[in-house]
Amino acid sequence: MKRLALAALIGALATACNGIGAYQPWPAHVSAAAKPASPLRAPEGSALLVVIQSKPQGSGNGRFTVFERSEPVAQFDEETASWTAAELSAGEHQFYVRTWASDFCTRVDATVAAGKVYVLDLNPQFASGPTDSIFGNAAFRDRPNAGALALLPYVATDRPAAAKELTGHARQLSDCIEHANAARAKAPQAAHTLGFDEIDFTTPGK
């Protein structure tokens, strides 16, 4: 009986150790950059995605990585509220958001149109201050959040470095997608469709 119990304990420990790799934050390949000119508009023939980290995760809680399958969209460090923008092709998109672990990934969908600007807010459920949470969240906004664009610094993602990061964590990437898709299937949501012709963040109250 003792041998069976010991074998079970060893098996559990082995399983835990094998899963440790999934519980690691990915580096964020971001740097401060010049803010785009206002009003913000989509490139001709494309859509524009604005991603805002208005409430940072807080030190030690994992950096945000937003991606589509194996294509990086945006990254953010843990302690700096900021925003960035990425060009999108028109059509359906599935965005995956990872912070500390693949088990905590979330997915948000959008159907975007050329010529429109869309705003994705990270951790929108927190009213103020760092989140102090390893559970990330994301939601598309029905308002342009021009105030955040005016006040927060702009960051650029080193896309080749971010893409290499995703390739180097292929198993964790797959786990992230699997967990997010399963959660989405349990609580289906319609794809976001509301975009803006432009966002004027020089006069955010206008």
Mean pLDDT comes to 83
Derived from helix and strand composition plus strand pairing, the structural class reads alpha+beta
Strand content: 25-35%
Tell me the distance between the termini: 74 Å
Q: Strand order of the main beta sheet, please?
A: 5-2-8-9
Low-confidence stretches: 1-21
In total, how many beta strands? 10
How many structural domains in the coordinates? 1
3D structure, described in words:
The structure is a single chain. The protein is an alpha+beta fold. The chain has one domain. 25% of the residues lie in helices and 27% in strands. It has helices at residues 2-19, 146-151, 159-168, 170-186, and strands at 30-32, 47-53, 64-68, 71-76, 82-88, 91-98, 106-112, 117-122, 138-140, 155-157. Strands 5-2-8-9 form a four-stranded mixed beta sheet, with no helix packed on it. A four-stranded antiparallel beta sheet has the order 4-3-6-7. Strands 1-10 form a two-stranded antiparallel ribbon. A hairpin with a 2-residue loop joins strand 3 (64-68) and strand 4. The longest helix is centred in the first third of the chain and has 18 residues, at 2-19. The termini are far apart. Residues 1-21 have low confidence and may be disordered.
